[in-house]
Amino acid sequence: MSKNIKRREFLRKGALATLGLSALPGIVGATSFNRLRIPASDKLRVAHIGLGGMGNQHMKWFAELADVDIVALCDVDPDHLNSTMQKLKEMKPDTKAQGYTDFRHILDRKDIDAVTVATPDHWHAQIARLAFQAGKDVYGEKPLSYDVAEGQAMPCLL
């Protein structure tokens, strides 16, 4: 039995089906992914350097990811460091993150995979360059460098 389908009806049903199929993985994945138990060996170990406004946002974004473990926080201002550490403990009561006032201690740690840099602009290039040299991945705020020479000094870009 053949039924002729009109063009507009085909387009409407096709659009609804496409919309439903594109939304389904997000709905199913979002609920089931948050319940996954990811082994510690598969987690990305991240440290946050600079804990002002954007640094706190970085910490919140990364803390919500199931496959990320925040292992260190760093800020030269002890008040920023302590308040962000408290926020992290509220979000993740079982955290074992350590606090630092000197970012070089973070770069010395071999167990850290990546750092975020949300310091004042004039520190971005120096911290990123040293982090790259230490074998860390870097998530940095813009500008990552002020000029071409600073950018070229970063080993990842050579």
Could you characterize what this model shows?
- There is one protein chain.
- The chain has 158 residues and is of the alpha/beta class.
- It has 2 domains: 36 residues; 118 residues, Rossmann fold.
- The chain contains 6 helices and 5 strands.
- The protein has a 5-stranded parallel β-sheet with strand order 3-2-1-4-5, sandwiched between helices.
- It is elongated.
Produce the secondary structure layout.
Blueprint: H1 7-33, E1 44-49, H2 53-63, E2 68-74, H3 78-91, E3 98-100, H4 103-108, E4 114-117, H5 121-133, E5 137-140, H6 148-152
Parallel strand pairs: 1-2, 1-4, 2-3, 4-5
The oligomeric state of the chains shown is single chain
Q: What proportion of the residues form beta strands (DSSP E)?
A: 15-25%
CATH top level class name of the largest domain = Alpha Beta
How far do the termini sit from each other? 66 Å
Order of helices and strands: HEHEHEHEHEH
Helix fraction by DSSP (H/I, runs of at least 4): 40-55%
Largest beta sheet: strand ordering: 3-2-1-4-5
Low-confidence stretches: none
CATH architectural name of the largest domain: 3-Layer(aba) Sandwich
**Number of DSSP-assigned strands:** 5
What is the overall number of helices? 6
Strand pairing plus helix content: what structural class?
alpha/beta
Q: Superfamily at the CATH H level of the largest domain? A: NAD(P)-binding Rossmann-like Domain
* Mean pLDDT figure: 85
**Shape category:** elongated
Count of the separate structural domains = 2
CA-based gyration radius: 22 Å
Major sheet description: 5 strands, parallel
